[in-house]
Fold:
Amino acid sequence: MGIADMDFKAAPVITEALQARMKHENWGYLDMGKATPELTGAVAAWNKKRYGVDIDPSTMVLSAGVHPALIAALLTFSPKGSKVLLQTPTYNGFYSDLRFTQTQPEDVPLKLANGKYSMDFDEFERRISIDTHSFILCNPQNPTGNCWSADDLTRIGEICLKHRVVVLADEIHCDWVTKGQKYTPFASLPNKAIVNNSLTFKAASKSFGLAAHKVAWFYSTNPELLARVKVNHRADLNTMGLIASQAAVTGGEDWLNQCVEYIDGNHDFVAKFVAANLPMVKYSKPQGTYLAWLDVSAVADKINAKALAAEHNRTKPANAPTLTPEQMIERYFVKHAKVHMNQGASYGTGGANHMRMNIATSRKLVELALTNLATALKGNQTNFV
Ligand SMILES: Cc1ncc(COP(=O)(O)O)c(C=O)c1O
Structure:
């Protein structure tokens, strides 16, 4: 129940499109002059219909993933050693992008009250210094699930504009919104100066389970920002990936809507199950994503995770990796519940004592995983592999 991809069979339109292309049996270079406008046009139409945002397809750049695109942007705006703002807990993959570009994370913790996360605007502004040039926004936020409101985005956008910090809006989770919640694209904000200070990064990969196809896109209303990023960006795209994304955004909406509804049901199921059977776990239904962010502080106390990690690190062979308390919890659940989840500390400041559970799977499997966790936590097992 770890890495963020889905267990479901792909939408039939995607499989059909890939099968049709397979029949051609020739794999020479793809005509990007034709493939690019086809896909960017379809993505723009999808964005207009689904989120009401106008994107000029000619301002859209295809990429082999959100990571390579973000890396190109970081290389453009954030010199080596400079700071990149993150609102934490946030997607752990951003830290690898920062390592790759030799930039420094500036973690600005989200505020947490009564199980709800919110942005800390004052702290965010305080953390900006002369060497802060970009901010990676995650909307909806992985792992907390927050769908940021137009007010949140406007306030954070104003601060960034004032301090000349470019907003890199990663909106890859935008389709996973729970009932009664709303995804607001950063690019849809009414203040054009704020939007012009941003680039948006997206893909069909989370929405349609296409991560292995390696296709994503980014766009900006600011031609200067876009031109500068393009200098540092090269996408080697593959035919099947483009076909899969094209089929998804032209014919996949019904499938996606059904899937979003099913995942919403999974979230309700998790909330109910945790409340009834997992007194050691704190959980609130998130606003978005297919991830459940579980507060396992009481589990950490029960198994004495800090002391276990310290003991492990004291006695381990010199060349073995050191372990954090979260990794002890992660191991505990693997050994005693046969459930693997992602340990919270890897999501930056504020992530400790949490586990991220991917629930984009059958409700049966979610139930089995939760039942196993409940059974393990009722026992007294403390031994580790
Ligand atoms: C917020 C966020 N951005 C980016 C990615 C990865 O994007 P890609 O596979 O397109 O590089 C993920 C994957 O989990 C993610 O959660």
Summary: The longest helix spans residues 253-277. The chain has a mean pLDDT of 96. The first strand starts at residue 60 and ends at 63.
